[in-house]
């Protein structure tokens, strides 16, 4: 059990939130309700557009307003187990990332399961990312990021782009990526119950809804099952050491390194799944992690 004081407060808050346990629709409603505490941060503007047929919200630092053609872009694929989440739930995180990276952050509202199982999310993500890569400011100024299921989706999207011989982003950031829907990694059992936000039973439920009978070993849903990640851009991976998805992150990092990819992996002690979405007043490390992501993104696409 974590001794981090913020995590213990979070544990008490989440116990009555409805975010764990229950049906997917019940947890979706709880996540949407909790999003009211995650507005766009000061210093950012919110814009709406369409990317590749996908409704998309942009978080734009005030300093970049009116500079759409040349400003670097991050396409962020939100978490929520492929069944929850969207603009409202990730507006705060995306805005903080935009400020840290000094980039415009686009959050596509990709289709969710169980209403829209695989491959709907992948099709939407590929369409949105491709639209950005083929427009201004050019692929050398574009990064892809994702948290939780969005992290796995970001990897799957890049593998799909590689397979098509398409343009590729210049960098990628993965926050606690859910990259293996077989749930067979050792941490899925060893750490189950330590994290107040994510438990193995909820992952099993969401995987079943997203897969809808599809093979969980398919790299398009479990990118750690790819033979290699050659051709993908440099990766920044951030994960807590108290979460069941720990091994997903370390396995992706090891696979990337064997594939010759530059990887930055940070395992945060005593911290939980997706801790970056929580305010620094509760989890001070959330700001430090986002700042590290911002530096990584700027190093690869901002200069």
Provide a compact summary of the structure.
The chain is an alpha/beta fold and 303 residues long. Helix content is 38%, strand content 16%.
Question: How would you describe this structure to a colleague?
Answer:
This protein is of the alpha/beta class and 303 residues long. It has a single domain (5-302), classed as Alpha/Beta hydrolase fold, catalytic domain (Rossmann fold). It is 38% helix and 16% strand. It has helices at residues 5-15, 24-34, 87-101, 120-133, 149-164, 187-190, 200-211, 246-258, 285-302; strands spanning 44-51, 54-61, 73-77, 104-108, 142-147, 171-175, 235-240, 263-268. It is globular.
CATH topology: Rossmann fold
Counted by DSSP, the helix tally is: 9
Specify the biggest β-sheet.
8 strands, mixed
Shape: globular
Low-confidence stretches: none
Q: How many distinct folded domains?
A: 1
Q: How would you name the CATH homologous superfamily?
A: Alpha/Beta hydrolase fold, catalytic domain
Give the strand line-up of the largest sheet. Answer: 1-2-4-3-5-6-7-8
Average of pLDDT: 94
């Amino acid at each position: 059990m974590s001794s981090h004081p913020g995590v213990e407060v979070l544990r008490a808050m989440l116990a009555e939130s409805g975010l764990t346990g229950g049906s997917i629709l019940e947890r979706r409603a709880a996540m949407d309700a909790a999003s009211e505490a995650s507005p766009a941060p000061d210093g950012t503007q919110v814009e709406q557009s369409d990317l590749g047929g996908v409704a998309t919200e942009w978080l734009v630092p005030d300093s970049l307003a009116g500079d759409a053609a040349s400003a670097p872009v991050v396409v962020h694929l939100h978490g929520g187990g492929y069944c929850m989440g969207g603009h409202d739930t990730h507006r705060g995180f995306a805005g903080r990332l935009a400020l840290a990276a000094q980039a415009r952050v686009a959050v596509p509202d990709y289709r969710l399961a169980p209403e829209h199982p695989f491959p709907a999310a992948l099709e939407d993500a590929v369409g949105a990312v491709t639209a950005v890569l083929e427009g201004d400011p050019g692929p050398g100024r574009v990064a892809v990021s994702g948290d939780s299921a969005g992290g796995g989706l970001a990897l799957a999207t890049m593998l799909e782009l590689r397979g098509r011989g398409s343009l590729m982003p210049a960098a990628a950031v993965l926050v606690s990526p859910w990259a293996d829907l077989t749930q067979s990694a050792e941490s899925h059992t060893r750490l189950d119950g330590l994290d107040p936000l994510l438990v193995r039973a909820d992952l099993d439920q969401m995987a079943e809804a997203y897969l809808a009978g599809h093979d969980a070993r398919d790299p398009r849903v479990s990118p750690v099952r790819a033979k290699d990640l050659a051709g993908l851009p440099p990766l920044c991976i951030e994960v807590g050491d108290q979460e069941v998805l720990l091994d997903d992150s370390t396995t992706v990092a090891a696979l990337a390194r064997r594939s010759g990819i530059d990887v930055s992996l940070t395992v945060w002690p005593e911290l939980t799944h997706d801790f970056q979405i929580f305010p620094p007043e509760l989890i001070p490390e959330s700001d430090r992690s986002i700042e590290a992501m911002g530096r990584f993104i700027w190093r690869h696409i901002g200069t």
